Amino acid sequence: MKIKSAEFVVSNSKVEKCPDSRLPEYAFIGRSNVGKSSLINMLTERKSLAKTSSRPGKTQLINHFLINGNWHLVDLPGYGYAKVSKSAKRTFQKFITAYFANRKQMVCAFVLIDSRHKAQKIDLEFMQWLGENQIPFCIIFTKADKIKPKALETNIKNYQTEMLEYWSEMPEFFISSATSGLGKEEILGYIESVNQQ
Ligand code: GDP
């Protein structure tokens, strides 16, 4: 897919206020600092469409971007700040639950995972929750330029092993680097093929 246009539409703190639109939307979510903003900018070929590096405790926002006039890319808040309170974690859970429960036009969630680490509990639990709630998702292993190919393979295998404890198969996954552009064609190609179905 060629990116002809990519524009910021709106930021919302409430799911009910998200655009009243039938356009298909693709949500991007992951731990804070996983490289979500960098990936969104890489995919859309814009330097600072998504703002990089958010700080803990800031207002949780759902950001809609209109791509090529025919689909929405949705930037969801990062999860997993080490220092947030239990109540902040519960608020996040409610917020995310409300997003997925309300946005019927949400076609696929891309769960971003830092490829430099072995399977992390928080990511596994989040994906399990998506599965239990029948929310379609794919995985994107980010920052692949920061790890040697062999180590990357080991980490992905580790995820496969962990996930196959609960699932009959590994969800579709992509490997990306915001610095080299790795994964761009595959991820955009996937979105294009789903949009055409
Ligand atoms: P976010 O909090 O998930 O939106 O993460 P950011 O996009 O702000 O990235 C966090 C940090 O990781 C920043 O310093 C980025 O420059 C760096 N980063 C993000 N993606 C990549 C990548 O693919 N390769 C490298 N080398 N660094 C990355």
Automatic annotation (TrEMBL):
Domain EngB-type G: 22-197
Cofactor(s) essential for the protein: Mg(2+)
Pfam families given in the database record: MMR_HSR1
GO MF terms, alphabetically ordered: GTP binding; metal ion binding
Keywords noted in UniProt: Cell cycle, Cell division, GTP-binding, Magnesium, Metal-binding, Nucleotide-binding, Septation
Alphabetized InterPro entries for the sequence: G_ENGB_dom, GTP-bd, GTP-bd_ribosome_bio_YsxC, P-loop_NTPase
A GO biological-process term: division septum assembly
Similarity-based family: Belongs to the TRAFAC class TrmE-Era-EngA-EngB-Septin-like GTPase superfamily. EngB GTPase family.
Function: Necessary for normal cell division and for the maintenance of normal septation.
Protein name: Probable GTP-binding protein EngB
Source organism of this protein record: Salegentibacter flavus
Lineage, top ranks: Bacteria, Pseudomonadati, Bacteroidota, Flavobacteriia, Flavobacteriales
